[in-house]
Amino acid sequence: MQIYRLPALSDNYIFLLHDADRQIAAVVDPAKAEPVLKRLQELQAELVAIFNTHHHGDHVGGNVRLLNAFPQAIVYGGTDDRGRIPRQQVFLQEGNRVTFGDRVAEVLFVPGHTRAHIAYYFPPSKPGDLGELFCGDTLFAGGCGRLFEGTPAQMVNSLSKIRELPDRTRVWCAHEYTLKNLQFALTVDQQNPDLQARYELVKGMRDRSEATVPSLLGDEKRTNPFLRWEQPNLQARVKSQDPVQTFARLRGMKDQF
Ligand code: ZN
Ligand code: FE
Predict the structure, then answer these.
(1) pLDDT in tens, 154-189
(2) CA distances from 15 to 6, 132, 157, 219, 244 (A)
(3) Which of 18, 55, 59, 117 is catalytic?
(4) What is the CATH number of the domain that holds 199?
């Protein structure tokens, strides 16, 4: 399975999954149809699936136009997004599995950014390979999504599920927010040498207009403050010893950053 990252709108990424042997493709969170249709044409691939993580317009905006071109494609989303994702046909919950070519993704229910948000996790196809996580606006490189419809406790629970996945998992998040996220992270975790090094790396990449997505989950665990609510220095920074309250206060500070 080859994964293509297609930029869209101001800072969204659309991900196109391609199975060259079968000449089929699937798309994760098509903000727009045009870049997807163009790449499908170049690949001479048939679109068989649209995997939506949540209902926001910058994640589902291309659904209808893609279906006009590929009426047989199946639209997947979370069960609680019923009525909010255009032309949704499959209503997924935690533990469900979805197939693309010879790969099978596990569905994680990860509410917080929205109340229905799901993520798709493809375990490595053979030992030594990387896993692939499509997490929409739940976990970002260096940050996490805003809480529009969920509580801090829900988001901590959701991020905990993601944190249990192997370090060698690529995190395909839906926005290029990494530099700003790491600038915030440095204000709450400045003594973290892994974070300092990552900031310098990402700064250079953005200066060269390179994408910073995907990241590696192992790097997120070491540097992303929104996976580190148990770290004593972060708890001290927000004057709490409670994981959920620590997370909530960090998220509140980021909202103001
Ligand atoms: Zn969103
Ligand atoms: Fe978004």
Answers:
(1) 999 999 999 999 999 999 999 999 999 999 999 999
(2) 6, 11, 25, 21, 31
(3) 59
(4) 3.60.15.10
